[in-house]
């Protein structure tokens, strides 16, 4: 998916591919997989952050025949020697027939 050869079949698959993009430092993929309305103009990834583990906590819709879905996850990272986590409930929608990240609804 990172090379643009295939689209994510589900919202969860897209979320996992976006986590992988953070892990390998691929901001271009992150921007391409972001909804056009909420996408920032650029994205800077911190090279000191090393993403180490992903836990999918919950999913709602986001399947092959859905047009919206949410995925709650916890992503673990290390920043230098300090561990950290990010917990988010991400919202996904289909844009032009493909899954894209819209935003998070934890606000």
TrEMBL record:
Domain of life per record: Bacteria
Residue stretches making up the YchJ-like middle NTF2-like domain: 10-103
Full protein name: Preprotein translocase
InterPro entries given in the database record: NTF2-like_dom_sf, YchJ-like_M
Database matches in Pfam families: YchJ_M-like (PF17775)
Coiled coil: none
